[in-house]
């Protein structure tokens, strides 16, 4: 009935309804739990700022000679570079896997194949770290050597090649780690493409690829962007895999295959923390705050895109 | 068990929107009263206000009075939960609880309220309620099976059994047959005839033949246009409404010349 | 879109030509044989073989398709092999990780590993009993805190929440989902350091950090499930004179218990492998500590990490322990994933 289907959201003067104690207690409990989320997040922000403040305002000589921003810049660079590499490799791969699962694989296999990709997300990051160091890094050394010999004039591949524990390796490992994130959301988006349009395209004699190009990809574009942003957020904050794999030299460089790499914020915290005391800990927390702000912005942008598309 | 309901000048709002305006009527005990009218005319909304079910939607409220045997259902000290225990309801689509067996579904009113009950007492209630809903013979051998495994018509009768198991005085039915096939519909209509000796029954239906078959009194609701409130146009004996209505709109509607 | 409507292959005209259905498989065999032959001359290795096979396969298939079926069909074949190829490519790390963890972890998967801590162990031997205990204790506490808060928050959002508070909570849960795990660790650290002084390292701190990561996962999955419960069931319950809170507990939550339990189990699987937050909050120790409120605790992920990053001599024994800890961790995670499926089967409503 049209009269009942359009209740206005705004609650106007409600009739005084006598509430049972059970109802009041339960409503109170669940509201309290929800408010708890607010409190926790406020706590995260407040305590991080509180503990970061000493390092933010400290004189350079108190925190190792350089100002906070001079110290955090190379870390920021490493963080963004590794995450960007991961996205550059992981996003196309993730999207095409999502396409494979939704539009190419036999329908019966779609769920199990999706599950297999989800397994990649279930592997703890420390395991990726060990695998990256002991298996993957040595395996890519020949490729890096080849790149360096043939494309060494190009700054990205300047080398010298040594252990394979390089920025590019980290990018590849992170790509594998963000792959399931990107695939999962893209899969959702592709699955929701209106089948009518797809069938219409096929009825017009389109090949499967043409159908996807005209009826699936335009529809899912913003979903894919959002998925990639979420993947980026994940890559920016990844700690253990980077800490284990990356051979750190400090400084800022675009050389992707040498052993002298800038650290990332997260990996730096994990590596430095056990030996840090006093203001050193404050310094690490301050860098963590920077990371928090960046991932917050990236995730915020992703959610905004998702919200805009689901509304329109 | 059966009670009389008097409604006077009832307005029903959703927020600022007036959905039903100025309804006054008397619903007799031990009879079947049918509400008919076009879609969106407010008959379901009005029905749901009789056991305060419309309050489930946020922002919903009423003005006016609904008096059941001398007690105002909207009095300030009345708990809507108690109202719903006296005025039961059956919905358009059968909705047995999927996690419960047939027997548990019948006992749901008691179980969900954590009422203690002896085993023999519970068994008796299950049997009498299912007997009352003309379902006992079909399900007595599989009471522990899930309620969702029954056919649509059986599920609807299970829902009726569930509603009468809480021993209400009034039974509201919101288009109870619209999701059922003709044979199941017939079974429900037979059941309604049987139930009216014990309960006051109010039924909303889209099907005029059904209204004329099962009801003693009929109320016709109409709406002037989209966004306008629904109103009660006319209420009388079912025979009068269908053969000799006083209003032109009623005559147009029951003769199928509507809209 | 014009190229769609001017599609050349007329229906039933009989002159549209297709490669036989076995063509891709035939080409694959050919490409494999070709690559094997080439590499036999240059020195065989598996990775090279696979890459060369893939490239040869693609080139031959696309060229053949272009010649026989025309450019549009060739593009289609090209994309298809690209898409299938990317899926197969994703399997490579999965299989490699699984194989490595199993083969290298198996070396120390012995009784001693589960019964000994590292207390007083020099050199080979020793175990991760202390780390296993720590992981289980910390994860259990995390679950105990996160599950009620998460479920109740989801109940609030679905059943009670209206207006700006509900919108704010929804938004904040999204924000929380994106918090990097190391930041969650730093939060717990910052919080407890304020209370207990700079050297505070406790099991409970780790739990608090993990809660920040687990709560949003529980909220999201529970919320999704609760929204799936049909409104008719709530109405049926209200109409029987059941108060709202009983309806929520006994109908809504009862109906969705399978989904909620599945979500919780997957959330546990997610946090049980977290390393970074524990590194900064719980620290590390060589001995068993069952008390989460007193001093450092070892956990499997940090055990694995320190065995790798700060190995004792001989290094090989230490690295072996790192791999075995990783294997046990993976087994735990997979067990929880599997449990999630069992739970979902066991609790879901039956119709027969």
TrEMBL record, chain A:
One of its GO terms (biological process) is phosphate ion transport. GO terms for molecular function: phosphate transmembrane transporter activity. One of its GO terms (cellular component) is plasma membrane. The keyword Magnesium does not apply. It holds the Pfam family BPD_transp_1. Gene3D superfamilies: MetI-like (1.10.3720.10). CDD domains: TM_PBP2 (cd06261). It is a multi-pass membrane protein. It is found in: Cell membrane. Residues 76-302 form the ABC transmembrane type-1 domain. Keywords: Cell membrane, Membrane, Phosphate transport, Transmembrane, Transmembrane helix, Transport. PROSITE patterns: ABC_TM1. The chain crosses the membrane at residues 25-50, 75-101, 113-146, 166-185, 239-258, 278-302. Part of the binding-protein-dependent transport system for phosphate; probably responsible for the translocation of the substrate across the membrane. Belongs to the binding-protein-dependent transport system permease family. CysTW subfamily. This is Phosphate transport system permease protein. It comes from Quadrisphaera granulorum.
From TrEMBL, chain B:
Residues 5-248 form the ABC transporter domain. It comes from the Bacteria. GO terms for biological process: phosphate ion transmembrane transport. Keywords: ATP-binding, Nucleotide-binding, Translocase, Transport. The keyword Nucleotide-binding applies. NCBIfam families: 3a0107s01c2 (TIGR00972). Signal peptide: none annotated. This is Phosphate transport system ATP-binding protein. GO terms for cellular component: membrane. SMART domains: AAA.
TrEMBL record, chain C:
GO terms for cellular component: plasma membrane. It is found in: Cell membrane. Residues 132-340 form the ABC transmembrane type-1 domain. One of its GO terms (biological process) is phosphate ion transmembrane transport. Keywords: Cell membrane, Membrane, Phosphate transport, Transmembrane, Transmembrane helix, Transport. PROSITE patterns: ABC_TM1. One of its GO terms (molecular function) is phosphate transmembrane transporter activity. It is a multi-pass membrane protein. The chain crosses the membrane at residues 21-42, 48-68, 80-102, 131-157, 169-196, 202-219, 251-272, 322-343. It holds the Pfam family BPD_transp_1. It comes from the Bacteria. InterPro entries: MetI-like (IPR000515), MetI-like_sf (IPR035906), Phosphate_PstA (IPR005672), Phosphate_transprt_permease (IPR051408). PANTHER family: PHOSPHATE TRANSPORT SYSTEM PERMEASE PROTEIN PSTA. Part of the binding-protein-dependent transport system for phosphate; probably responsible for the translocation of the substrate across the membrane. Belongs to the binding-protein-dependent transport system permease family. CysTW subfamily. This is Phosphate transport system permease protein PstA.
């Amino acid at each position: 009935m049209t009269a009942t289907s359009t209740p206005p959201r705004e609650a106007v003067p409600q009739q005084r309804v006598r509430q049972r104690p059970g109802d009041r207690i339960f409503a109170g409990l669940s509201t309290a739990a929800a408010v708890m989320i607010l409190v926790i997040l406020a706590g995260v922000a407040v305590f991080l700022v509180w503990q970061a403040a000493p390092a933010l305002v400290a004189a350079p000589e108190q925190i190792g000679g350089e100002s906070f921003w001079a110290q955090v810049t190379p870390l920021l660079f490493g963080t963004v570079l590794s995450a960007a590499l991961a996205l550059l490799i992981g996003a196309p791969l993730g999207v095409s896997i999502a396409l494979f699962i939704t539009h190419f694989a036999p329908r019966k296999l779609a769920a199990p194949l999706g599950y297999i990709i989800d397994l990649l997300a279930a592997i703890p990051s420390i395991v990726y770290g060990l695998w990256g160091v002991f298996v993957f890094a040595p395996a890519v050394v020949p490729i890096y050597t080849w790149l360096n010999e043939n494309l060494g004039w190009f700054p990205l591949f300047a080398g010298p090649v040594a252990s394979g524990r390089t920025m590019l390796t980290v990018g590849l490992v992170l790509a594998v780690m963000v792959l399931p994130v990107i695939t999962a959301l893209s899969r959702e988006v592709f699955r929701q493409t209106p089948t009518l349009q797809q069938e219409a395209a096929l009825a017009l004699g389109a090949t499967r690829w043409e159908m996807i190009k005209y009826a699936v990809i335009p529809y899912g574009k913003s979903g894919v962007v959002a998925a990639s942003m979420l993947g980026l957020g994940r890559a920016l904050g990844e700690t253990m895999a980077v800490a284990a794999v990356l051979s750190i030299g400090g400084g800022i460089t675009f050389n992707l295959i040498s052993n002298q790499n800038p650290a990332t914020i997260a990996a730096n915290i994990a590596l430095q923390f056990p030996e840090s005391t006093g203001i050193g800990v404050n310094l690490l927390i301050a860098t963590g705050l920077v990371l928090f702000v960046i991932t917050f912005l990236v995730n915020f942008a992703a959610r905004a895109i998702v919200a805009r598309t689901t509304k329109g | 068990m059966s009670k009389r309901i008097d409604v006077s000048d009832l307005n029903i709002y959703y927020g600022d929107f007036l959905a039903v305006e100025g309804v006054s009527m008397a619903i007799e005990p031990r009879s079947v009263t049918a509400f008919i009218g076009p879609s969106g005319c407010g008959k379901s909304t009005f029905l749901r206000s009789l056991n305060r079910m419309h309050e489930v939607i946020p922002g919903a409220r009423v003005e006016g009075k609904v008096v059941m045997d001398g007690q105002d259902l909207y009095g300030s000290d009345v708990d809507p939960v108690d109202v719903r225990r006296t005025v039961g309801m059956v919905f358009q689509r059968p909705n047995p609880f999927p996690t419960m067996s047939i027997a548990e579904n019948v006992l749901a009113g008691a179980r969900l309220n954590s009422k203690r009950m002896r085993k023999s007492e519970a068994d008796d209630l299950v049997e009498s309620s299912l007997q009352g809903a003309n379902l006992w013979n079909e399900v007595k051998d599989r009471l522990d099976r899930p309620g969702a495994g029954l056919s649509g018509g059986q599920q609807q009768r299970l829902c009726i059994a569930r509603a009468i198991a809480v021993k209400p005085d009034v039974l509201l039915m919101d288009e109870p047959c619209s999701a059922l096939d003709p044979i199941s519909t017939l079974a429900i209509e037979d059941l309604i005839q049987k139930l009216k000796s014990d309960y006051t029954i109010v039924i909303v239906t889209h099907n005029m033949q059904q209204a004329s078959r099962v009801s003693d009194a009929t109320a016709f609701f109409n709406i002037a246009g989209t966004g306008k409130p629904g109103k009660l146009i006319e209420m009388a004996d079912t025979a009068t409404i269908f053969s000799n209505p006083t209003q032109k709109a009623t005559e147009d509607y029951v003769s199928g010349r509507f809209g | 879109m014009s190229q769609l409507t001017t599609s050349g292959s007329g229906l039933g005209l009989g002159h549209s030509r297709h490669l036989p259905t076995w063509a891709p498989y035939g080409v694959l065999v050919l490409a494999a044989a070709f690559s094997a032959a080439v590499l036999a001359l240059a020195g065989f290795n598996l990775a090279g073989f696979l890459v060369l096979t893939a490239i040869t396969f693609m080139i031959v298939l696309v060229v053949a398709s272009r010649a026989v079926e025309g450019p549009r069909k060739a593009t289609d074949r090209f994309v298809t092999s690209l898409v299938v190829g990317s899926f197969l490519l994703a399997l490579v790390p999965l299989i490699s990780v699984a194989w490595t963890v199993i083969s290298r972890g198996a070396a120390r998967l012995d009784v001693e590993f589960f019964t000994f801590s590292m207390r007083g162990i020099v050199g080979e031997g020793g175990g991760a009993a202390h780390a296993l205990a720590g992981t289980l204790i910390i994860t259990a506490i995390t679950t105990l805190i996160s599950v009620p808060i998460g479920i109740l928050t989801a109940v609030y959002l679905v059943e009670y929440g209206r207006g700006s508070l509900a919108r704010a909570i929804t938004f904040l849960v999204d924000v929380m989902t994106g918090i990097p795990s190391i930041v969650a660790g730093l939060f717990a650290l910052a919080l407890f350091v304020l209370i207990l002084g700079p050297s505070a390292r406790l099991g409970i701190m780790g739990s608090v950090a993990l809660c920040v990561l687990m709560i949003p996962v529980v909220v999201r999955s529970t919320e999704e499930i609760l929204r799936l419960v049909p409104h008719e069931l709530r109405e049926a319950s209200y109409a029987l004179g059941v108060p709202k809170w009983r309806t929520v507990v006994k109908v809504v939550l009862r109906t969705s218990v399978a989904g909620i339990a599945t979500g919780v189990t997957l959330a546990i699987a997610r946090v049980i492998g977290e390393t970074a937050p524990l590194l900064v909050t719980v620290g590390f120790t060589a001995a068993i500590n069952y008390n989460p409120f007193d001093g450092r605790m070892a956990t499997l992920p940090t055990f694995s990490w320190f065995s790798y990053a700060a190995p004792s001599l001989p290094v090989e024994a230490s690295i072996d322990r790192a791999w075995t800890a990783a294997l046990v961790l993976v087994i735990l995670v997979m067990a929880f994933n599997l449990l999630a499926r069992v739970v979902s089967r066991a609790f879901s409503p039956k119709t027969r």
